[in-house]
Amino acid sequence: SQKIEQNSEALNIQEGKTATLTCNYTNYSPAYLQWYRQDPGRGPVFLLLIRENEKEKRKERLKVTFDTTLKQSLFHITASQPADSATYLCAGSGGATNKLIFGTGTLLAVQP
Amino acid sequence: GAGVSQSPSNKVTEKGKDVELRCDPISGHTALYWYRQSLGQGLEFLIYFQGNSAPDKSGLPSDRFSAERTGGSVSTLTIQRTQQEDSAVYLCASSLGRATPNYGYTFGSGTRLTVV
Q1: What are B40-94's pLDDT values in tens digits?
Q2: Distance between B18 CA and the closest CA of chain A, angstroms
Q3: Do A49 and B99 touch (CB under 8 A)?
Q4: Of the candidates A91, A59, A55, A62, which has an alpha carbon nearest to the alpha carbon of residue A76?
Q5: Smallest Cα distance from A54 to chain B, Å
Q6: Cα–Cα distance between A63 and A59 in angstroms, integer?
Q7: Are the C-beta atoms of A18 and A108 separated by less than 8 Å?
Q8: Using CB atoms within 10 A as the burial measure, which of A31, A72, B41, B94 is most buried?
């Protein structure tokens, strides 16, 4: 079945460093990938979308890559801040209905 | 409205009772999605609406689950004869209908359902 996989272990980094989160997909080829941020008790918030024909997309301190050969997307937060601490979800498009298939998310903790 | 509104925010119900969860999407968003999120799990797709029709119901876990959307706006997810395994956060999202370079889904804050 179509699957999006993210590292379930929490990522702990020091303030000011670059956080890198990984997303792998199996058993299909999504036309695009999206990244969301989720805080406790809240719904996910859309951050970035990258299409399969794009190698890289940037938005302020965020950068996303899409490698169709490795079937992988990397999500980078540069100059990380404690306020960036949250769970980050990767999602891939799921075909004609445009539904998204979500990974389980990676918890990022930025230490001051 | 300015965002996706879901009600109630919390619902505790007894096993065997029926529950209705409501979603009010962003005005003008033609696509509406229901997901559920169990503790420590990813978002599980339930159903997709385009306008009032549901072209993809593949995620509904059993025939106890149903959903409708009226007027291309408000949607209601109904769970009949609730079971303890139905306990989860039910999230609704809306979008313009196709992914565009700058927009994804807009999610509500969810309804936390607890079946006791």
Answers
A1: 788 999 999 999 999 899 999 999 999 999 998 999 999 999 999 999 999 999 9
A2: 24
A3: yes
A4: A62
A5: 11
A6: 6
A7: no
A8: B94
